[in-house]
Amino acid sequence: MKPRIEVVAIDCLMVRLFEVIAEDNMPWMLAATRRLREGFGVALVDLVPSYTTLMVHYDLTALNPAQARELIGLALAELQPEPKGGGRCHVLPVWYDVSVGPELTWLAQRSGLAVEEVMRRHSQHEYQVFALGFAPGFAFMGLVEEVLAAPRLNTPRKRVAAGSVGIAERQTAAYPAVSPGGWNLIGRTPAKLFDRERDGYSLMQPGDTVRFEAVGHAEFINLGGDDTPLEAQS
Questions:
Q1: What is the pLDDT of residues 57-96, one digit of tens each?
Q2: CATH tag, 89-233
Q3: Positive or negative: CA dihedral 69, 74, 78, 82
């Protein structure tokens, strides 16, 4: 592995570890995250991991760009991947239904699968949390099977309900709050994905894994889910 350092801003560098998104990247990304946090110490303003990169925002009053590059080189020297299984495993109940997941039927038609098979395939895989972004608590997860992969909507919705579960390309995610969004929606979870009272705010963190568990309507309601159809919330 030969990390590449790219300039983002006068006080921000992007460390590119990989060129291709893959689940096997995560142990290396976690190790790099830990080493960079240790290496920069109090001079680190923020560190944002993604699928293949780490954005390092540092205090320009404590380090100049050359010193920041040197710290990155030292931190990543002889890097070894973190042991697998270090993150938490979350099981998110999901009510798969066209009233809250309007693209469920379209994805079935596009893939040539029955709706029930789309639900089964989406819920049978354990997904890796690669990054947080877009909105507080929004976890980018993957990788979904290629047969379920689908491009984002041409025109994003102005309002997507909290808990909506969707697919975009080979990514899957659940919306933590009401927001605009262009992912293909297939269901809804009652799980509280973002909580200001929770340590770290977000239910999920990079390195965690997630499994979606199909539940019926009654259980979804008992768990606190909102079954208001998407159209009625628009």
A1: 999 999 999 999 999 999 999 999 988 767 899 999 999 9
A2: 2.40.100.10
A3: negative
Token code pair at residue 58: 């540092």
∠ CA 225-231-234, nearest 5°, is: 95
Alpha helices, DSSP H, located in 49-167: 65-76, 104-111, 115-124
Residue 196 contacts residue 212 (beta carbons within 8 Å) = no
Kind and range of the H or E element at 221?
Answer: helix 217-222
CATH of 4-76, one of 1.10.12.10, 3.30.1360.40, 3.40.50.10540, 3.40.50.300: 3.30.1360.40
Structure tokens, 150: 């689908």
Task: Tell me the C-alpha distance between 164 and 142, whole Å.
Answer: 16
Question: How much is the pTM?
Answer: 0.83
Can you tell me whether residue 226 is helix, strand or coil? coil
Residue 183 burial (CB < 10 Å; 0-12/13-18/19+)? buried
Report how far apart the first and last C-alpha atoms of the chain are (Å, whole number): 47
In this structure, how many other beta carbons lie within 10 angstroms of the beta carbon of residue 63? 17
Q: Could you tell me how many residues make up the chain?
A: 234
